[in-house]
């Protein structure tokens, strides 16, 4: 995560997306491939299904929080090694910090929920399904 000065620049392949939670308490931006060309993941694991995550995966130096980062709440479950971060006021699911647990898949990236992007039109995007329900351990039980 950058400090707001954002050393990483947009390119023809990547653009900055402005995003916020529902109540506007958390405002941020991130750099990602053009969403119509991006690898967007729709996972059916318990947390993604319940929170409606559709993620894109910028690197740590490709996102900047303008406001609200210090107020985000973290939730861990299962193996307890990934931070699912959400707004404490409205509950919007902002991101997943893998804490370098899935380096072979994501490198030093985080999962940013594209549903938080300002004026996003989900009908214009293509997602890939990931069968997290069956492929990730431990299995979800309440």
Topology:
Layout: E1 14-20, E2 27-33, E3 40-43, H1 46-51, E4 55-56, E5 63-67, E6 73-75, E7 83-86, E8 93-97, H2 103-106, E9 110-113, E10 127-130, H3 132-135
Parallel strand pairs: 3-10
Antiparallel strand pairs: 1-2, 2-5, 4-9, 6-7, 7-8, 8-9
Question: What features would you describe in this structure?
Answer:
By secondary structure, the protein is mainly β. It contains 3 helices and 10 strands; from the N terminus they run βββαβββββαββα. The chain has helices spanning 46-51, 103-106, 132-135; strands spanning 14-20, 27-33, 40-43, 55-56, 63-67, 73-75, 83-86, 93-97, 110-113, 127-130. The strands form 3 sheets. Strands 4-9-8-7-6 form a 5-stranded antiparallel beta sheet, with no helix packed on it. A 3-stranded antiparallel beta sheet has the order 1-2-5, with no helix packed on it. The protein has a two-stranded parallel sheet with strand order 3-10. The model is unreliable at 2-6 (pLDDT under 50).
Q: Which descriptor suits the 3D outline?
A: globular
Number of helices: 3
Radius of gyration, taken over Cα atoms and rounded to an integer in Å: 14 Å
Secondary structure: helix percent? under 10%
């Amino acid at each position: 995560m950058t400090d707001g000065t954002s050393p990483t620049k947009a390119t023809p392949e990547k653009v900055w997306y402005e995003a916020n939670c529902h109540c506007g308490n958390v405002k941020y931006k991130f750099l990602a491939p053009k969403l119509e060309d991006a690898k967007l993941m729709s996972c059916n694991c318990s947390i993604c299904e319940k929170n409606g995550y559709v993620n894109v995966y910028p690197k740590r130096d490709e996102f900047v929080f303008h406001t609200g980062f210090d107020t985000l709440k973290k939730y861990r479950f299962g193996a307890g090694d990934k931070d699912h971060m959400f707004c404490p006021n409205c509950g919007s699911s902002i991101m997943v910090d893998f804490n370098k647990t899935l380096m072979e898949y994501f490198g030093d990236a985080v999962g940013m929920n594209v549903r938080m992007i300002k004026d996003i039109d989900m009908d214009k995007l293509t997602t890939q399904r990931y069968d997290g329900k069956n492929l990730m351990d431990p299995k979800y039980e309440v």
